[in-house]
Amino acid sequence: MPLNVAQKIIQAHLLEGEMVSGTEIALRIDQTLCQDATGTLVMLELEAMELVRTKAEVSVQYVDHNLIQEDFKNPDDHLFLESAAKRFGIYFSRPGNGVSHPVHMQNFGKPGKTMTGSDSHTCAAGSLGMIAIGSGGLEVAMTIAGYPLYIKMPKIFGVKLKGKLPDWVSAKDVILEMLRRHGVKGGVGYIIEYYGPGLKDLDAMDRHVIANMGAELGATTTVFPSDEVTYDFLNGEDRANDWMEIVADEGATYDRHDEINLDTLVPLIAKPSSPGNVVPVSEIAGESIYQAYIGSSANPGYRDYAMAAEMVNGKVVKNGVSFDINPSSRTILEELARDGHILHLLHAGARLHQAGCNGCIGMGQAPATGRNSLRTVPRNFPGRSGTPEDSVFLCSPETATASALNGKITDPRTLDMHYPRIKIPKKRILNRDVIEKPLPLEQAKKVPLIKGPNIISLPDLAPLPEKFEIPVLLKVGDNISTDEISPAGNKVLPYRSNIPKISRFSFRIVDRTYARRAQEQRDKGGHIIIGGENYGQGSSREHAALAPRFLGLHAVIAKSFARIHWQNLVNFGVIPLTFVDPSDYDQIEEGDVIELKDLHHIFEKNEFNIFLVSKNKIIAVHHELSPRQIEILKLGGLINWVKRHPAE
Questions:
Q1: In whole angstroms, what is the distance from residue 302 CA to residue 205 CA?
Q2: Whether 58 contacts 435, CB under 8 Å
Q3: Which of 569, 613, 610, 574 has its CA nearest to residue 591?
Q4: Within 10 A of 466 (CB to CB), how many other CB atoms are there?
Q5: Vertex 494 angle, CA 490 and 498, to 5°
Q6: Which residue from 127, 311, 505, 520 has the highest number of Cβ atoms inside 10 Å of its Cβ?
């Protein structure tokens, strides 16, 4: 049977199950990725598992999110992560090396390999022909410890690209076009695989832009073929030996299909406050802006910065505009400096920041109140920028730079300038000495874990009770993101290693009273949350499951769930249920009491009833749990399950 790229890689790594969509499979994982906002919990989980050394071929710990050192918490965590990396045989990328995804692509990404990472944008590595899946930190810890990654076998969504991008239109507009067509739920349950003649003019970093924001479609991951373009990238990084060709067989089919003629694309922009709220730039041109921001994992390539530099060369950005440049990696920053692009940007009035995630995760560069911010980042969820009432638009570097020059949203095609032709330098700067290599095993065993006062051991999670009768403490609408459940930013993320502290911020953007009320209810038996469609979209951060669980959350009943958050809820012993009839969502209000009983046997059926005590009503609910996940829930979470099931 002819296979597509995704099927070829999955088949080569399949340990359990069959490639039948919707059924649980187990994959052998070759590489793991952790970033610091989620990695501290991963390392604490490895310590709890008493791991000696990573079982993966390559494991890397990056420090790219929490770079602001306004007090001891972040630098203490950096030391902890470095010591843990040494202890467990993991590569360590120090602060300032850059964003995990492009740095991994430059140094470790390898066609045909599988990877899981504690960051939802791990899917960016699909640009090199990898199956790379974002997961909760605990699942990443499991793969580091030698367990397979369990997922539901996705369907494959084939997207044929033909034609060539016009001037002033770039890879960001391709993924924005996908979001315009399909929305933030359009990829749920799918791997998106791009193919076709249009690929030949998209370099590896262009593909990274598209693969990265597949997470915003809700896709399990995105994959590109490994072809001559992939070879050129790896050869430039002095890793030609890591290349292998992986292309779809002739006659390979897809479960779903779309086609994009690149010739017809125009500059696009996602309006506040959803990546799916996409319109042509020309439709809203003329609105004033406060900020234009270039960089992040969503536009990390040399071209993205060089384009901005050539556009502002000999010019000055408009007064009143903050023109923020966030380099994606140390080596790309070195190359831009070598080639004169940094000088052009600085002379034009740009603000140069350290290589890292920075404002994308709300760590600095927050926009002014009530002012528009144009960003090349992947997400614009409410408040993610660090400003509670923000107005963030997502766009290409061309659109952001054109708007910075004019002080208002500008279609770059209307500029009175020639389109800059950016050539990617063949001579790349290689600087791998700044990434610490794993120590030999006997030396690693002697490394002590350095724990500052903010690092607290993980809380114990009790097994599932036989029954409970508890209130609905919170009811939320559609597309609630993990940023709204467990906020990002420099006030919250420094507590990522301290669950009792970070739990106090749970749902603060939605309801500032939730954490206090949940804590009061915890000793009375806990509580339930009611959600709408796509509950838990966005970041993979497991704090969005663990912190409410610490506050007594036992179940979430929603119309539908985002994949990673659904899995995170299970991993920490929170029951995820969906309404059989979505209109029953309207029957439940905050304060209603729900009874669930015979919990150790009720999951034997995929559909059962809950009792709405306060209204004397029966409501049908559904679950999609595998037998393994049911056992995890009964035991109170994945950590408790691991103690009964040591890795082979």
A1: 8
A2: no
A3: 613
A4: 11
A5: 145
A6: 127
Task: Indicate the pLDDT class of residue 539, thresholds 50, 70 and 90.
Answer: confident
Among 105, 149, 492, residue whose Cα is nearest residue 93: 105
Look at residue 269 in the predicted model and tell me its pLDDT. Answer: 98
Determine the Cα–Cα distance for residues 120 and 103; give it in Å rounded to an integer. Answer: 16
Q: What is the pLDDT of residues 501-519, one digit of tens each?
A: 999 999 999 999 999 999 9
The predicted model gives 220-243 an average pLDDT of 97
Report pLDDT digits (tens) over 61-76: 999 998 888 889 899 9
Distances (CA, A) of 128 to 18, 344, 433: 25, 31, 23
How does residue 642 score in pLDDT terms, banded at 50, 70 and 90? confident
pLDDT score, position 648: 65
The residue written with tokens 């340990």 in the block is: 15
173 and 208 Cβ atoms separated by less than 8 Å: no
CA geometry: angle 315, 317, 320, nearest 5 deg: 155
Longest dimension (CA), the chain: 72
Range with the poorest average pLDDT among 11-20, 55-64, 492-501, 622-631: 492-501
Question: Which residue do the tokens 């766009």 mark?
Answer: 395
- Structural contact between residues 154 and 21, judged by C-beta atoms closer than 8 angstroms: yes
- Strands of 37-89, DSSP E: 58-62
In the chain, count H helices and then E strands: 22, 27
Contact 187, 217 (CB under 8 A): yes
The three-state DSSP-derived secondary structure of 200-245 is HHCCHHHHHHHHHHHHHHCECEEECCECHHHHHHHHHCCCHHHCCC
pLDDT digits (tens, 9 = 90+) for 181-220: 999 999 999 999 999 999 999 999 999 999 999 999 999 9
428 half-sphere exposure, CB direction, 13 A CA radius: 20
